[in-house]
Amino acid sequence: MKNGKYKTLIIIIIVLFLANMVTLYFLMNDKRRKNGGRSEAFTQYLKKDIGFNKTQMKSYDSLLQEHKNNMNNEFMQTDSLRRISMKTVAENNFTDTAIIQSVESNSVFFKDMQVQMLQHLRAIRNICSADQQQKFDTSFYKIIFKSKKNKN
């Protein structure tokens, strides 16, 4: 009886996890289509609130383009990863071990994406002067979450 409950719970977790992956993918693509979305808001934040000059903005634009290319490649791998993961779970008769391995392999992908995002923010911070870094450190997360909140 317990194994059945755990199996059901794990399957629900996987379904929700995959639904979140798909939602994240479509939200990211949707944001890019709508007036630059969050990246445009962040660009304005760097110009107006942090005080980036033209040279700094040029450096930021290069970083942003590189980051977008890297993230697009990551998202393209998502579909393949999901298919392999689901196929493996099914081939192993939805055993708890197969389900947990599937979730763990998918979580590595999201961990890598989080690392890339934080490294990207660090690179942006490195463009800042000392005074700008202090402003950036106390406010960058506000603009990120404000952009997310305004979207909903």
SSE topology:
Layout: H1 2-33, H2 37-50, H3 54-91, H4 96-127, H5 130-151
What can you see in these coordinates?
There is one protein chain. This protein has five helices and no strands. With 152 residues, the chain is mainly α. It is elongated.
Quaternary class: single chain
Radius of gyration: 19 Å
Distance between the termini: 41 Å
Q: What is the mean predicted local confidence, pLDDT?
A: 81
**Class from helix and strand fractions:** mainly alpha
| Strand content bin | under 5%
Biggest β-sheet, characterized?
none
The number of helices is 5
Question: Which outline best applies?
Answer: elongated
Helix content: over 70%
Q: Could you give the count of β-strands?
A: 0
Residue stretches low in confidence (pLDDT < 50, at least 5 long) are 31-35
Q: What labels describe this entry?
A:
elongated, mainly alpha, 152 residues, 5 helices
Summarize the structure.
With 152 residues, this protein is mainly alpha-helical. The chain has five helices and no strands. The chain has helices at residues 2-33, 37-50, 54-91, 96-127, 130-151.
